[in-house]
Write a structure and sequence with these properties.
By secondary structure, this protein is an alpha/beta fold. The chain has helices spanning 2-9, 19-24, 32-38, 40-44, 60-74, 82-91, 141-149, 187-196, 217-226, 257-260, and strands at 12-17, 96-100, 117-118, 122-129, 138-139, 151-152, 157-158, 171-175, 201-206, 231-235, 250-253. The strands form three sheets. It has a six-stranded parallel sheet with strand order 3-2-1-9-10-11, with helices on both faces. The radius of gyration is 19 Å and the shape is globular. Residues 1-264 form the Deacetylase sirtuin-type domain.
């Protein structure tokens, strides 16, 4: 298999992951059954999947009712995930780094070193002022737990709405949804990745489609073009095609990552 041979020949491995990886791991924003189970009130209002809530304006109590349940489910679960742990086993002792648009912290929660993971789109594990009045961001676990403590499943609302510790204004999770986004917390990892990169890198891109191609897909292609001995393996169920100009240095795998990892 090309992937196994290229792994053996690689000086270093870059895992580049989009939403398709977490969906394969069971964190699918289009999962209608899980949505109805977790958010019965919103389901009754005619919504059916989490992706519909991205950027949707809601009254503050309903907003934090939804996001506290969602983030607790997606970001703070303690159980290991078989897809991510198998991927970590595949990388093994090879020198590696991770670039991901996912904000769920699943790499660090499943054996990848946190200082080797760059999440340029942010992380549900932090929150920020919406203004923002400061470049500072804070761990989100306390505000999520506080909102959950007063969450009413019958109304879908939380009585606890967090505010900025500095100005008392509105806050939200520290994720890239607009110009107010504060990426400073993640910048050091991006710098470490740029310093780490070099020729002989094997890029394994997983589940990165065209929703945000400028975050993973396009940069990865440009990276491989810029390094004469770099290689790309693109794993994707729907958009596995690779640029023709990369020639034999790029391989397309049109499959779910669970098939590649030989998982049930």
């Amino acid at each position: 298999m090309t992937l196994e041979r290229w792994l053996d020949e690689a000086d270093r491995v870059l895992i580049a992951a989009g939403a398709g990886l977490s969906a394969a791991a069971g964190y699918d924003y289009s999962d209608t059954e899980r949505f109805a189970e977790l958010f019965p009130v919103l389901h009754e209002k005619g919504l059916w999947a989490r992706y519909q809530l991205i950027g949707l304006p809601l009254p503050p109590r309903l907003l934090w009712g939804y996001w506290s349940v969602h983030v607790d489910d997606i970001r703070f679960g303690a159980e290991p995930n078989p897809v991510y742990t198998r991927l970590r086993d595949l990388v093994g002792t090879r020198d590696h780094f991770v670039l991901t648009s996912n904000v769920d912290g699943l790499f660090a929660r499943n054996g990848f070193a946190e200082d080797r993971v760059w999440t340029p789109q942010g992380d549900y594990g932090r929150y920020q002022c919406e203004t923002p009045c400061t470049r500072e961001t804070w761990p989100s676990r306390p505000i999520v737990d506080a909102a959950l403590a007063t969450y009413d499943v019958l109304t879908g609302e939380s009585e606890t709405v967090p505010v900025c510790p500095r100005c008392g204004g509105e806050v939200f999770l520290n994720v890239h949804k607009g110009p107010e986004y504060v990426p400073d917390h993640y910048a050091p990892a991006g710098k470490r990745l740029r310093e780490w990169l070099g020729d002989g890198v094997l890029v394994i891109e997983i589940g990165a489609g065209f929703s945000t191609p400028t975050v993973i897909r396009r940069p990865v292609e440009s990276l491989v073009r810029s390094l004469p001995s770099a290689r790309l393996v693109r794993v994707n169920t729907a958009h596995a095609e690779v640029p023709a100009d990369l020639g034999e240095r790029a391989v397309s795998v049109r499959a779910d990552i669970t098939e590649v990892l030989d998982l049930p």
